[in-house]
Design the sequence.
C-alpha cells in the first residue's frame, strides 16, 4: 500500500486543543459510554481510548461488541457518555467518515452490482478524485481483482466479506472498524486478511475489530478489550490478559475407583486449593494448573486408584470472561 | 458540482436497484392492465367511451399510487432493512442529499410507468382529443408521482413497515374514507393529482374535490414536509441493535 494518502504521517496524530502538552487525538475514544434498549442494558459504562495498532474487541456473542462498534461508527447514539472518532463526536457527524471505514457484520452488499461497481460507488460517495483507480487499488488489496467484474451475488461468503472490506478501505481511512471480519473466511483468506490488517496497522492506522474467537484475537491484536455482558472486563496487552486467564483457579471433576482415597492423596499438594467429595465424583479446585496436571497421574498411581474420567469443568470462554469480570 | 456527482452516484445505483428484474416485471404488468383493458374495449368496437373515467380509475387511482408505493418505499427502505444502506450512511455526505436522490429516482421511475401506461391507454381508447388528454394526465401523473414518492420515502425512514402503512393510506384513506367522509379529500394526493389534471383539461361536469390551489398547496406541503421529515430522521437514523 502506497500513496499520498499515507495516514500515519498526519491523520491520527492531529493534535487536539487539550490542556498541557499537545497529545495526539485518540482514533477512537469512549468516555463512560452506556447504551440501553428499554430496560435492557447492552453496554454499561465503558471507557477506552485507542491509538494506532490493532485492538481486538473480544467477547462472547451478545456481549455488546456490535453495539460498541455501531456507536463508534456513528450509527447508534449512546444513551450516556461520549463517543469520539479522531477527536470529533461520532453521533450525527457524517464528516467522521472521511477518516473512518466500517466493515459491518451483516451481509450488507448489493447482490446485483459487480464488485467493481460497488467499490466505485463507494469511492464516488467519498468524492475521491479518481474513483476508478481507487476501486482497482482497493479490490487488489483484498485479492479480488480477478472477480471484480462478477456480480456480488455470485461471490462466496468469504469474498463478500472481502468486498465489504474493500468498500471500507477505498478512501484509505486512518481508522478502521471491523465487526467479526473473519466470519465465513476459509483459513487461507483468514491469513491473507490478518497480513493485510497487520500491514495497515504498521502504517499507523487505528484498527478495532471484534471477535468471539480467542485465537483470532491472539494472532492479530496488539492489545485487547474483553467485553462481557456489556461491561469492559479487561483491557490491555494480550499476553497479560492471557496470563490472567491461565493463572485463574479452575475446577476439575474426577471420577475414579476410590474418590475418597484419591482426595486424601491430592489434598496436601499446594496446587490443590480445595476438594469436594460428591456422590457423582470429586470436584477439585486447582490453583496451579500445570503442576496439577503432573501431580494427578503420579498421585493416582501411588495411591493405587484408577482414574475413570477427568474433566475440566469450566474451560469455556464464557467462564473465562465471567472470571475476569468478577475480579 | 460535488452535490451533483453525489446525486448521480446515488441515483444511478438506486435506479438500477429499483428496476431489478422481478420488481420491474411486476410493475410492468400492473402498468399493462389499463393498456390491455383499452385494447379489449377497442377490439369489441363499442363506440365512444368516457376515456377520462377510465384513466381516473385505472391510472390515477390504481397504477400511480401502487407504483409510487412500491418504488417509494423500496428506494431507501429496502437498503435500510437489509443493511446495505450502511454503505450509504457511512459516507461524508449530508443525509439530505441521500434523501433528495432517492425521492427523485423513486418519483421519476413511478412517473415513467404511470405516464407511459396513461398515454398508451388513452391512444388505444380512441377518444376525441387523445393528445390533449394524454398531455394533461402525463403532467398530473408526474406531479402526483413525485408527491407520492416523497411521502413514501419519508415513511420508509420513519417505519420499517412503510409498505403496509402506505397501502393503508392509499386504500383506506384515499379510497374508502374519501368516499364516506369527503372532508378527508383535502389530504388526498389522489385528489391533488386529479385537481391538477382538471385545471389543465377542465371537465364538462365539475369534480367534487380539491381545486388547483388546494392541490398545489397539498403537493407543496407533502414535497417540503416529506423531504424535511425524511432528511432529519435519516440524520438521526440508528441501525438496529445487532450482537
Sequence:
Amino acid at each position: 500500500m502506497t500513496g499520498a494518502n499515507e495516514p500515519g504521517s498526519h491523520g491520527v496524530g492531529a493534535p487536539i486543543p487539550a490542556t498541557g502538552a499537545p497529545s495526539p487525538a485518540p482514533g477512537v475514544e469512549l468516555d463512560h459510554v452506556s447504551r440501553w434498549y428499554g430496560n435492557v442494558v447492552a453496554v454499561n459504562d465503558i471507557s477506552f481510548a485507542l491509538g494506532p495498532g490493532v485492538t481486538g474487541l473480544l467477547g462472547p456473542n451478545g456481549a455488546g461488541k456490535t453495539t460498541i462498534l455501531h456507536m463508534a461508527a456513528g450509527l447508534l447514539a449512546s444513551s450516556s457518555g461520549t463517543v469520539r472518532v479522531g477527536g470529533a463526536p461520532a453521533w450525527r457527524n457524517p464528516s467522521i467518515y472521511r477518516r473512518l471505514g466500517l466493515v459491518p457484520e451483516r451481509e450488507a452488499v448489493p447482490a446485483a452490482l459487480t464488485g467493481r461497481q460497488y467499490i466505485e460507488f463507494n469511492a464516488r460517495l467519498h468524492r475521491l478524485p479518481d474513483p476508478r483507480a481507487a476501486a482497482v487499488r482497493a479490490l487488489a488489496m483484498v485479492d479480488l481483482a480477478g472477480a471484480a467484474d462478477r456480480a456480488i451475488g455470485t461471490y462466496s461468503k468469504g469474498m463478500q466479506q472481502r468486498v465489504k472490506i474493500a468498500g471500507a478501505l477505498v478512501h484509505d481511512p486512518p481508522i478502521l472498524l471491523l465487526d467479526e471480519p473473519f466470519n465465513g473466511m476459509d483459513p487461507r483468506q483468514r491469513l491473507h486478511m490478518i497480513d493485510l490488517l497487520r500491514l495497515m496497522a504498521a502504517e499507523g492506522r487505528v484498527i478495532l475489530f471484534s471477535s468471539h474467537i480467542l485465537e483470532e484475537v491472539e494472532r492479530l491484536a496488539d492489545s485487547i478489550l474483553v467485553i462481557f455482558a456489556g461491561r469492559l472486563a479487561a483491557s490491555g496487552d494480550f499476553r497479560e490478559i492471557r496470563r490472567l486467564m491461565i493463572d485463574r483457579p479452575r475446577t476439575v471433576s474426577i471420577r475414579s475407583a476410590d474418590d475418597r482415597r484419591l482426595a486424601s492423596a491430592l489434598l496436601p499438594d499446594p496446587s490443590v486449593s480445595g476438594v469436594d467429595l460428591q456422590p457423582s465424583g470429586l470436584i477439585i479446585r486447582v490453583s496451579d494448573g500445570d503442576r496439577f496436571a503432573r501431580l494427578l497421574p503420579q498421585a493416582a498411581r501411588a495411591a493405587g486408584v484408577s482414574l475413570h474420567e477427568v474433566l475440566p469443568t469450566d474451560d469455556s470462554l464464557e467462564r473465562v470472561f465471567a472470571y475476569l469480570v468478577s475480579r | 458540482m460535488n452535490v451533483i456527482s453525489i446525486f448521480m452516484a446515488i441515483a444511478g445505483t438506486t435506479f438500477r436497484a429499483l428496476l431489478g428484474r422481478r420488481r420491474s416485471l411486476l410493475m410492468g404488468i400492473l402498468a399493462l392492465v389499463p393498456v390491455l383493458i383499452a385494447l379489449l374495449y377497442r377490439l369489441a368496437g363499442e363506440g365512444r367511451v368516457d376515456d377520462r373515467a377510465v384513466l381516473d380509475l385505472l391510472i390515477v387511482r390504481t397504477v400511480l399510487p401502487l407504483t409510487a408505493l412500491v418504488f417509494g418505499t423500496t428506494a431507501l427502505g429496502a437498503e435500510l432493512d437489509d443493511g446495505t444502506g450502511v454503505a450509504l450512511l457511512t459516507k461524508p455526505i449530508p443525509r439530505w442529499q441521500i434523501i433528495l436522490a432517492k425521492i427523485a429516482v423513486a418519483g421519476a421511475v413511478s412517473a415513467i410507468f404511470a405516464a407511459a401506461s396513461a398515454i398508451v391507454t388513452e391512444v388505444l381508447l380512441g377518444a376525441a382529443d387523445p393528445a390533449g388528454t394524454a398531455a394533461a394526465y402525463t403532467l398530473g401523473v408526474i406531479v402526483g408521482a413525485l408527491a407520492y414518492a416523497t411521502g413514501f420515502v419519508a415513511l420508509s425512514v420513519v417505519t420499517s413497515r412503510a409498505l403496509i402503512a402506505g397501502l393503508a393510506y392509499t386504500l383506506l384513506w384515499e379510497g374508502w374514507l374519501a368516499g364516506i367522509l369527503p372532508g378527508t379529500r383535502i389530504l388526498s394526493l389522489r385528489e391533488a393529482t386529479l385537481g391538477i389534471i382538471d385545471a389543465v383539461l377542465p371537465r364538462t361536469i365539475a369534480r367534487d374535490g380539491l381545486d388547483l390551489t388546494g392541490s398545489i398547496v397539498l403537493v407543496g406541503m407533502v414535497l417540503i414536509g416529506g423531504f424535511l421529515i425524511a432528511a432529519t430522521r435519516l440524520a438521526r437514523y440508528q441501525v438496529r441493535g445487532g450482537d
